[in-house]
Amino acid sequence: MDNLLISALSAVDVRDLSYVEWMNVGMALQHEGYPCSVWDEWSQNDQRYHPGECARKWNTFHGSGTPITGATIVQLAKQRGWKPFEGNGVMDWNDTISYDGRDTPAPITPPADEGKPTVELAKYIQTLFRPEDYVGYVTGDVRQNEDGGWEPLRGVFSRTAGELLASLAKYPDDLGATVGDWKPNVGGWIRFNPLDGTGASDRNVTDFRYALVESDVLPVQEQIAAYQKLELPIACLVSSGGKSVHAIVHIDAPNEAEYRKRVLFMYSFLTGHGLMVDQANKNPSRLSRMPGVDRNGKRQKLLAVNIGRQSWQDWMEFVEGVEYDLPQLERLDTLLAENPVLPEELIRGILRCGHKMLISGPSKAGKSFLLMELAIAITEGRKWLGFPCKKGRVLYVNLEIDRASCIHRFANIYDALHIRKPCAENLVLWNLRGKAVPLDKLVPQLVRRVRDQHFDAIIIDPIYKVITGDENSASDMAFFCNQFDKICAETGCAAIYCHHHSKGDQGNRKAADRASGSGVFARDPDAQLDVIELQLDGDMKYEAEAFGRTAWRLESSLREFQNIVPVDFWFDYPVHTLERSADLSVVPAKGSADAKRAAAGKNLSREQRADTIRMAYIACSIDPETPVTVQMLAEYLGVSDRSVRDRVKEMPQEFANNRGVITCVKAPD
Question: What angle is formed at CA 158 by the lines to CA 255 and CA 299, rounded to 5 degrees?
């Protein structure tokens, strides 16, 4: 529908629209997955246009149970004389009916005896009615309205289906002998629900079996393709002899109230899926075009019977599958015999292609650099933190830093990794700082842009910029995380994203429980990797600070693989480097019980505590003109002021504490 919708939009003059209609166009474009720029560019043709207004309004569109769809734009265009197709729109028997769905529907073929109008009408009556049912129809009983058009009146309603079929069989070559003469330029009509034989209004309907679906917005071929794609339970499909095809659809309602409820639901569903139907066809005594009758030199033809789903209940099962995208039930023995091939590993031992991965960590942990390094590793087919990556294409969605900074970061990382001939064409950036919208609105546009681009991974950095709902609500976050499923399902790419830790110490928590907000974050992705800072001490801390580096540990919670052995590494701006020795393996994570015990000296001997003070004092005495304070020693050791005072008290022969200033009583060895 892409080209059709843009064509329709170009036919609508924004200057002619009210404010509400202008807003509806914006909501329709967003619902159909178009970017705000399309609405903004079109709106600039109006003297009421204000720069930036479209973007502000766009971000307030959050959807509803009855969304404004592209059909709104098509209808506005049609009201202004726009035609989506050439010709009169009438199908011939030899016309090709196209269908763009995933499954191939049963072909629609004309009746075997297409030359006899009586055969078409007989087939129609046999399909819809029982012999004892009274059938209403209108041929010559018409009147001309003020506009010069012709309208049907009550017509005939006292003949049964059996009587009509007997007459059609008696006069096989003369349809008028059964239904009467009609005006050649007007055609004829027939009611698709049985009557009581005394009238032709809604109160005379005896069984609420069918409803009429009619849409003359799309070309005839596309109307039929839409009916098939949405698997309507069509009892009879009739060409109107004009620019529409009438679908007589199973409703199977027990009473009129339920009939109207089901028809409203069906119309809403069809409109919501891009098929704008005539809303005036709701009543059960409605007239539809009678097959076999001529109209303006064209036959009102019976195109098919009993296509699509077989009943309303059967169709509702299809609707539930469409609305909730639920797969069919499958037997295990069939699946085992199929033996499907597992997706390739994108990151060996961690993530498969088409799966989801979350990286969580505290602020300033270099998570963005870590994701950029991963993007480069996949692009170049290199290792990432020691894990081999499959070579492929990556889309990096940058939501946080400005465009120039993002580009320079990638350049700096490439330089630091000493990659001289990068496969930069395989790494694509989408810089959205200041342009981000909630993820449920971003995903349709993202899917449209990456379609057929053959990406292997989509990295979204960071997700707090596009989060929808309450971060601590399980239901809100389940909806939010489902958007990543849509990315994977509709693009075939792995979705990789990062999130921050919750507040407070994380060292004693499991890796899966450190991400902020609802536990859904930890349980939704196929792979969760968590980075936590290590609590350095002594010489290791002094050396790290001197070089401006921090120490980190990578832990995992994996669905497809065994959890990895924790990986220790340094963040040496702008890259992370593995710790090849075992030095960091014994270092506790910040906030852990081991780190707190070490900081408090509870697991150190008296002499070890004294050594920490001596080492800290030497490190803090580099500038002889700056007095060494309790606060300086505490900051160096990563302990409290009280812990420093306590340790100094244990060694009065070496150090003295004079109101927070530490002095050396005798020079340490």
Answer: 90
